[in-house]
Design brief:
- Pfam families: EamA.
- It is found in: Cell membrane.
- This is Chloramphenicol-sensitive protein RarD.
- The protein has 307 residues and is mainly α.
- It has one domain.
- It has 13 helices and no strands.
- Helix 3 crosses helix 5.
Length: 307
């Protein structure tokens, strides 16, 4: 068999990156459409929905892990690793629960804000806890976000609590994930192993208040679907991350909050007074600075001579 030519390799890389871009975009689009999904589970209350999501995510992930025969990482994970997984599980529970509550309580725009500022919270956490060097544009972007939060606090008449909980919980969650030697699917499976017994016990204590069997077949199927709805975007994300550069995935991540914001403003018509627009404009300015700097830095690293 003749060796592959440079053009053939390039063509293969282009095809691989094209698939990766599709997978990544689909993952973030699905996450961006979550505000349309969670209200379908009413009259189940947010805590019940969260418990079902944990239980059925565990079932779905367990099936995936069995099919892929990837049980070994769980057996090899150290006690310290399981402690970190447990802490991460608590944080993702807070994040999921807050988001479900926010969507069903008509705070979609505020939830979207949380995911807009998450990348900058992650940079700040890296600076504080991992001693990572922060470039001047990143510092400026963080400062602009702080100003935006102040503007939005004045607008809301309170701190944007939902946004801050979502951003901080997911930012610290990401920080902990750096310490766990597991990929995305296996890591979430480990977290669900920790959480599922508690979630299942909670559902049992609900008794007749559990809507799983009291609201008809359609409602039951929707609650069952929470596992698949959780896992599919995650699998797509993993497939995309393996095929395209991290900077590209970083750009794609804004698809989700953009779609969530659009849903909140144009579909469910949440109020957006001028002062709130100003706050969001500052957040988008910060993200523009952050993204431009990341792309510029990536380009410098690519063009740097190899010694």
């Amino acid at each position: 068999m003749p060796p592959l030519t440079t053009s053939a390799i390039t063509s293969r890389e282009v095809h691989t990156q094209g698939r990766g871009l599709t997978y990544g975009a689909l993952a973030y689009v699905l996450w961006g459409l979550f505000p349309a999904y969670w209200p379908l589970l009413v009259p189940a209350q947010p805590v019940e929905v969260l418990a079902h999501r944990i239980v059925w995510s565990f079932v779905t992930l367990a099936i995936v892990v069995m099919i892929l025969r990837r049980w070994r990482p769980f057996l090899e994970l150290s006690g310290k690793g399981w402690l970190i997984v447990t802490a991460a599980a608590v944080l993702i529970t807070v994040n999921w629960g807050t988001y479900i509550y926010a969507v069903n309580a008509h705070h979609v725009v505020e939830a979207a804000l949380g995911y807009f500022i998450t990348p900058l919270v992650s940079v700040a956490l890296g600076m504080l806890f991992l001693k990572e060097r922060v470039r001047l544009p990143q510092t400026v972007a963080i400062a602009v976000v702080i100003v935006a939060v102040i503007v939005l606090t004045v607008d809301y008449g309170r701190l944007p609590i939902v946004s801050l909980i979502l951003a901080c919980s997911f930012g610290v969650y990401g920080l902990l994930k750096k310490k766990v030697p597991l990929d995305a699917v296996t890591s979430l499976t480990a977290e669900s192993i920790v959480l599922a017994p508690l979630a299942g016990l909670y559902l049992l204590t609900l008794g007749s208040a559990n809507t799983f069997t009291t609201e008809g077949t359609g409602h039951t199927l929707l609650l069952l679907s929470t596992g698949i709805v959780t896992v599919i975007p995650l699998v797509l994300f993993g497939a995309g991350a393996q095929r395209i550069p991290l900077i590209t995935m970083g750009m794609l991540q804004y698809l989700a909050p953009v779609l969530q914001f659009a849903w909140g403003v144009f579909v469910v018509h949440e109020p957006m007074p001028p002062s709130r627009w100003i706050g969001f404009a500052l957040v988008w300015l910060a993200l523009a600075i952050f993204t431009f700097d990341a792309m510029k830095n990536r380009r410098k690293q690519t063009l740097a001579p190899v010694s």
